[in-house]
């Protein structure tokens, strides 16, 4: 599958388990991050939010929201939870609502500011739609109460997809898969795009763990070879993506760039951008990718470099190396 790099059912699955606890942690926090398209941050090279180097969402920590309540058309909802990738809530009669039934659901939350004060916000879910794989897409908007204007939580008006768990904004690691964490991944970012491509955390994808595929995809999309949160690509860079699950096949005859697993690249034939170096110390004017990695070679000597050569890899990509902009 040709894509833009960032920053660009048989039997029960463990992902069928409901996320309980109103999808908040013991301190009442929910996950909501603001996304950007393809840049050199964690979500696309941004994982899912503002820059991973510490920029905050509206002056507040991205995971510091304290949930106060949820309403639908002015009526209070109860028992807010997540089943697979879908938000579910009970109406006053105890009947569950999900998907498009929750159109224009709103909830209030507090944000802890850096000056130790709190701000009260309202968030809404609109234009809800179901995507392949059971993913729920929604336009997520918020405003500061009592009279602030609404703005889209994802830049450029993109929708967001709900994902189970929590990702470290610096390293890009998936640090939690517990029932009390959920994250909205903006489309156009690594978290959102990788899920929308079919790499759904918790799913069984033709015998391959969707969580591993999704995490490997976030590494690949940002060219985070070392798997430590160092993105080495730039907006608008084309890559050809394919996987060990057979979900995507290569569309080009470009040279192989790298093969990937959840920890980063398994092997690297060339960097995506010419100003990054595989060697330490790097050549003058270049930066080191952060780890010593072997080149991708035909280990089995069958004429192909593929997943048989690198059984630990679940994803691969092709790319023609380009120079950075002047």
Main β-sheet, in a few words?
9 strands, antiparallel
Radius of gyration: 20 Å
Task: Report strand %.
Answer: 35-45%
Mean pLDDT: 77
Shape: elongated
From the structure above, extract its key features:
326 residues; single chain; 24 strands; 35% strand; five-stranded antiparallel beta sheet
What does this structure look like?
- By secondary structure, the chain is mainly β.
- It has helices at about 40-45, 190-195, 210-220; strands at about 1-5, 20, 30, 60-70, 75, 80-85, 85-90, 95-100, 105-115, 120-130, 135-145, 150, 160-165, 165, 175, 180-185, 205, 210, 235-245, 255-260, 265-270, 275, 285-290, 315-320.
- The protein has one domain.
- Strands 3, 4, 5, 9, 10, 11, 12, 13 and 16 form a 9-stranded antiparallel sheet that branches. It has a 5-stranded antiparallel sheet with strand order 1-19-24-20-21, covered by helices on one side.
- It is elongated.
Helix-strand layout with pairing:
Layout: E1 2-5, E2 18-19, E3 29-30, H1 42-46, E4 60-72, E5 75-76, E6 78-83, E7 86-90, E8 96-98, E9 105-113, E10 118-130, E11 136-144, E12 151-152, E13 160-164, E14 166-167, E15 174-176, E16 182-186, H2 190-196, E17 204-205, E18 208-209, H3 210-221, E19 237-243, E20 256-261, E21 264-268, E22 276-277, E23 287-288, E24 315-318
What is this structure, in a nutshell?
By secondary structure, the protein is mostly beta strands.
């Amino acid at each position: 599958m040709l894509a833009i790099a960032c920053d660009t059912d048989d039997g029960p699955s463990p992902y069928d388990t409901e996320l309980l606890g109103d999808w908040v942690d013991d301190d009442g926090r929910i996950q909501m991050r603001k996304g950007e398209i393809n840049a050199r941050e964690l979500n696309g090279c941004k994982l899912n939010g503002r820059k991973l180097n510490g920029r905050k969402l509206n002056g507040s920590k991205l995971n510091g929201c304290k949930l106060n309540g949820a309403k639908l058309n002015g009526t209070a909802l109860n028992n807010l939870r997540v089943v697979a990738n879908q938000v579910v809530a009970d109406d006053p009669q105890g009947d569950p609502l999900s998907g498009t039934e929750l159109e224009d659901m709103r909830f209030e939350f507090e944000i802890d500011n850096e000056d130790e004060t709190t701000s009260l916000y309202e968030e809404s879910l609109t234009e809800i739609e179901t995507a392949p794989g059971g993913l729920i897409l929604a336009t997520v908007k918020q405003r500061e109460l009592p009279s602030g204007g609404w703005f889209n939580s994802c830049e450029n008006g993109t929708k967001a997809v709900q994902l189970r768990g929590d990702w470290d904004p610096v390293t890009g690691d998936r640090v939690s898969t517990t029932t009390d964490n959920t994250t909205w991944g903006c489309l156009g970012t690594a978290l959102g795009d990788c899920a929308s491509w079919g790499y759904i955390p918790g799913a069984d994808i033709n015998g391959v763990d969707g969580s591993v595929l999704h995490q490997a995809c976030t590494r690949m999309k940002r060219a985070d070879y070392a798997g430590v949160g160092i993105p080495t690509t730039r907006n608008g860079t084309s890559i050809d993506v394919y996987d060990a699950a057979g979900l995507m096949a290569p569309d080009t005859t470009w040279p192989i760039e790298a093969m990937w697993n959840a920890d980063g690249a398994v092997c690297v034939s060339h960097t995506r951008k010419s100003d990054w170096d595989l060697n330490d110390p790097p050549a003058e004017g270049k930066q080191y990718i952060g780890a010593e990695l072997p080149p991708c070679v035909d280990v089995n000597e069958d004429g192909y470099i593929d997943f048989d050569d690198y059984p630990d890899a679940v994803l691969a990509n092709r790319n023609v190396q380009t120079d950075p902009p002047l």
